[in-house]
Amino acid sequence: MPSIRILLMDTERLVAEGFRNLLQSFKEFSVVAVAHDEATALRHLGRHHPHLVVMGPGAGGNGGMDTARAIRQTSRHVRIIVLASSRQPIHMREAFVAGANAYLSRDIDAQELRDTLLTVHREGVALSAAAAGQVLELVSGGLSRDASPLDLLTRREREILFLVADDQETHHIAARLGITPKTVRNYLSRIYAKLGTRNRLQTALYALRCPELHPQSAAKT
After folding, report:
1. Are 164 and 207 in contact (CB under 8 A)?
2. Structural element, H or E, at residue 176
3. What pLDDT does 214 receive?
C-alpha cells in the first residue's frame, strides 16, 4: 500500500490531473487531495495530513509562494516541493525563504520526480549542487572566491555536522546535544541546503574531506 500521502496543488485543472495520474502511477505515493486554490489547499491540509505538498507550475499568484508560506505557518511538519517553470536563482531563493523543501524544474522526467519526492520525504530537503550554489550566493550576498560553504554554518550546525561525520545516529546526536531527534533532522535539512548535499551519506563524506571542520570552531551564531 502507498505510504507517502501527497497533496497536489495547481490552479490549472488539466495540469493538476496530469500530475495526479503520474504520481498515482508510483506505488510509493497516494494523492489524497487536489487543490486549485489556497483556501482549498489549507482545508485539505488539515483534513488529510499529507506528508508532502507538491505545488505545480500553476500554483497561483506569486508563483505559489504566498500559499507556501501559509502552509508552512499552518503545518511545519509538511514538506513542500515546488515544480516551477523558472530556473532563475531569485525565484529559487523566494521558494526556500517561503518554506519550500525542494525546487524543481517542470521539465524533469518522471523518474527524477519520483526520486526527488522520496529524498524529500526521507531527508527533508532535495537540492542539486548547482541550485545550492545559486541560492547560497543570493542568501549570503555573494561569497568570496576563497570562501567555503562551511562558513555559512552556525556553531550548532557545525557540531551536528562533526557528529554526522563521526557516524553518530540521529538519536545519539540528540541525546548528546540535549535536543530532540526532530530538531536534529531540522538542522540536517538546513545543513544539506547550505552544503548542496542530497543526503546524510553525501554530507558525511563532505565533512570528512574538510580538515578545518571542528565542532568548536568559530562560526556564525
Report:
1. yes
2. helix 170-177
3. 47
**Angle between helix 65-74 and 89-98 (nearest 10):** 20
Structural domains present in the chain: 4-126 (3.40.50.2300), 146-208 (1.10.10.10)
**Beta strands, E only, 1-130:** 4-9, 29-35, 52-55, 79-84, 102-105
Amino acid at 204: A
* 92/152 Cα distance (integer angstroms): 18
Assess contact for 127 and 89: CB atoms under 8 A. no
**Residue range 123-144: average pLDDT?**
58
At 34, the pLDDT band (50, 70, 90 cuts) reads: very high
Assign 105 to helix, strand or coil. Answer: strand
Spatial CA neighbour of 198 closest among 117, 136, 143: 117
User: Comparing C-alpha atoms, which of 124, 104, 98, 121 is closest to residue 189?
Assistant: 124
Give this prediction's pTM.
0.60
